[in-house]
Amino acid sequence: MSNIKADYSDPAELLKADHRLVEQLFNDIQIAKDTATERGLILNRIIEELTQHSSVEEKYLYPLVRRRFPNGPELAERSILEHTDMKRVLGDLCLMDPSDNRLWASISALIAYVTQHVEEEERDILDKLKDHCDTAMLQSLAHALLQGKDGAPVHPARNLHPHVVGGVPL
Known about the structure:
Elements: H1 11-31, H2 36-68, H3 72-94, H4 102-124, H5 129-132, H6 135-151, E1 164-165, E2 168-169
Antiparallel strand pairs: 1-2
Helix pairs in contact: 1-2, 1-4, 2-3, 2-6, 3-4
């Protein structure tokens, strides 16, 4: 489990805590012992966290951004397109064996891509939520994010290969 803490009433802090967790997982996979099993387990967790996180953002955060931010439709659309590209990479990673040499190139690309997305999202959306939403909206969003994670998908390509992710059986 993660030591990352968040204010459960602040949606920006909740989402930033998810970002920090994924950053830690990226670090973990880069320094993992040279075993396919360990890399596979960390990769599974990365895939689950990113899939779940992007799902709740798309369902709850981006519709609010569309309505409340002056440039909301453009911000939301850009973020959703970035998520679509990220999910494509995650789906590809699901089908790779952890010992596959191409895995590291794909993980490196994912890390660079997610890092850029997170920086933009925190700067352009999360750090400005309080400027565009009242307290009730923020509390409602935080509640929705927390509740939504419970039922959110954790796998982008469950239908492609239902029993193995990153070469590790589920």
